[in-house]
């Protein structure tokens, strides 16, 4: 579609964007005769009016408020940047604590070789049933808190450390969010 240009388009557009709305007589006469210029005038006037309403409704903050917001954002970004190495160090420390507790449990597991559970497994003719669980319970708690053994102490220390470390590590992981 080939669009024909009208010689009055610039004058019509200028009249539509004029804030005084004083349209010259020759442009008014042309608007009555030319349908394309009427459309142009209607659209340009509507857009100009919408622009004026948008400018009147716009709430631009003061310079002081914009400066305060920029300073606040810069401080927050600097705090987040400074906290990154601390968060990484906390994660590494948590992994190290868990690794130490796991390796301590693995190192102390050789004491389990002398426990009644392994003695029950050594006999092939006896199946392991509830007696194995009883042997583990006796190992951990003992008969009425019987004799003190290094294995019992190590197991209780590892369990206690895990009970203390787990909520602390969970708190440190969640508090940044």
Question: Could you explain the architecture of this structure?
Answer:
- This protein is an all-alpha fold and 177 residues long.
- It folds into two domains: 9-57, no CATH class; 83-174.
- It is built from seven helices and no strands.
- The radius of gyration is 42 Å and the shape is rod-shaped.
Helical content class: over 70%
Question: How many structural domains are formed by the residues?
Answer: 2
Low-confidence stretches: none
How many angstroms separate the termini? 59 Å
- Report Rg: 42 Å
- How would a textbook summarize the main sheet? none
Total strands: the figure is: 0
Mean pLDDT: 76
Strand content: under 5%
- The helix/strand order is HHHHHHH
Query: Total helix count?
Result: 7
Shape: rod-shaped
Q: What is the SS-derived class?
A: mainly alpha
Features:
rod-shaped; 2 domains; 73% helix
Question: What is this structure, in a nutshell?
Answer:
It contains seven helices and no strands.
List the helices and strands and how they pair.
Blueprint: H1 9-17, H2 25-33, H3 35-57, H4 63-108, H5 116-122, H6 130-140, H7 150-174
């Amino acid at each position: 579609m080939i669009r024909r240009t009208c010689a009055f388009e610039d004058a019509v557009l200028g009249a539509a964007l004029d804030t005084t709305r004083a349209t010259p007589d020759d442009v008014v006469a042309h608007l009555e005769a030319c349908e394309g210029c009427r459309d142009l005038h209607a659209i340009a006037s509507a857009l100009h009016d919408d622009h004026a309403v948008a400018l009147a409704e716009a709430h631009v903050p003061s310079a002081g408020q914009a400066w305060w917001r920029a300073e606040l954002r810069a401080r927050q970004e600097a705090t987040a940047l400074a906290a990154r190495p601390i968060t990484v160090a906390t994660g590494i420390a948590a992994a190290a604590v868990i690794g130490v507790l796991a390796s301590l449990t693995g190192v102390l597991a050789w004491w389990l070789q002398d426990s009644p559970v392994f003695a029950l497994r050594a006999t092939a003719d006896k199946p392991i049933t509830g007696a194995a669980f009883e042997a583990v319970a006796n190992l951990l708690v003992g008969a009425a808190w019987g004799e003190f053994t290094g294995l019992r102490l190590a197991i209780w220390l590892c369990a206690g450390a895990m009970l203390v470390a787990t909520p602390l590590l969970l708190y440190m992981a969640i508090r940044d969010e």
